[in-house]
Design brief:
alpha+beta, four-stranded antiparallel beta sheet, about 60% helix
Length: about 525
Amino acid sequence: MAELLNQKVFLILLIITLGVAIGRVKIAGFSLGIAAIMFVGLVFGHFGYRVDGDFTNLGLLLFVFTIGLQSGPGFVNSFRKNGKQLLSLAVVLVFTASFIAWISSWLFGFDIVVAIGLYAGAMGSTPGLAAGLEATGSPDVAIGYGIAYPFGVIGFSFLIKIFPRIFKIDLKRSEKDYLEEIEKQYPTIVSRLICINNEFYLDRPLSELNLQADFECTVTGVYHNKKFRMPGKDTVIRRDDLVKVSGTKEHIDKLVDEVGEFVAKKKAEPDNYVVKWVLVTNKMVTNKFYREIDLPYNYSATVSKIKRSGIEISPNHNSIFRFGDKLQIVAPKKRIKEISQLLGNDSKMLSAINIIPIFLGITLGYLLGTIKIPMFGGMNFSLGITGGAIIAGLVLSAIGKTGPVVWSMSGSANQLLREVGLAIFLAGIGTKTGVSFVQTLQNNGATLFMIGAIITIVPAIITMFVGHKIFKMNFLTLIGATTGILTNSAGMGLLNGFTKTNACSIAYAMVFPFAMILIIIFSQILAMFT
């Protein structure tokens, strides 16, 4: 058996299998979940078994890159909404942690160099450790890091589980509130029949009326003399015509106040027209503006709704075809097959995993993380492979497509790769921590370990309190941000089981790069006291 355990692949598989099984066991309603993999790794590591660092790094890269890829589409809008609050929380947590490290070294009389290591370990920040080593030139930084790191990773995993109880949070309610907030940002798209009687809008072609640009409503059909026709740029609205429009209720109400009145009766498209959902899977149209394809002119068809990442969006004059979009199209029956072929409409292609964008993106992220940027005091800053990978995922998913490469994958494929990467990472980090965990405590004492735990716990609780009580942030967003500020990838894995939404992932991805930079800067500030 010992020979088998020395085979790294078998060791990883065994740790993950045991961890997943143990993680499902519930005691008093509490279970470790996927974090159990890390605890199993800790035991194996204590007895001298170790997963190679390359395996650990590969798992970490897969995990954080897929988080970035998933979070990219909602990143910009979320940052506009919560950006200032989240960045403020990052400053609060990082500053508080560095202050506790500094004051502890003064109160307990140990070297500030060790305090820098405690600070970096409590924050789970390898770049912070590197910055401390470079700034001080002392190996004692690593001692402090080794003492604080286990609790920084493992202890915070427990905190994540008990935070909802500490703050008396109903997670289901938080999830509902988050979804309601999303609904406010992206209201349901509806269709209404209106009669235009404002003289300004009569006897003029739709191309001159700018209903889409001015009111964010799309004309999907016109009934003239009781006959239905598809709208085009040259379609002229006459008196008593009935116009079918789609958009949010608020935008349609605004349109009606300006141009006419609602028509109570409903009218369905005639038999020679269909309403169909079509998937965008053709790389040739991905990232092109709607106006470039011009469905109304070329196919007598109209896009009435867009479903993207589970959210309904009303199309406008700046809309772009994104890979994986689901479009509701109104079109003549004889043209719908042609339109489907144009857009792709291939569900198999959507669910398939194309490994080229994944590994190309991870490679780009890895290279980005190795770039060193000169900073004050002769120091160099780099994002590290974690920061590089998550930023690469965010940027590439926001771009959508580069030449023939589409930076996207289905939700199920993303989740599979993310969980596989996380499992490998947890197995590796557990064995790495377990190798020196007990020995470090024996050699350096429980006092430093407790200080490291305080550096993790106190700033996290203060940050959660400020976000919850002062900023009134949604709890899922708040806990995702706190985990990101602590650059705790293992903690982020636990959050996957908290909610079916992407609230935690988006907040984590938003603050992670900024927090990493702050941790490095404060490590260098602490080094000035040596």
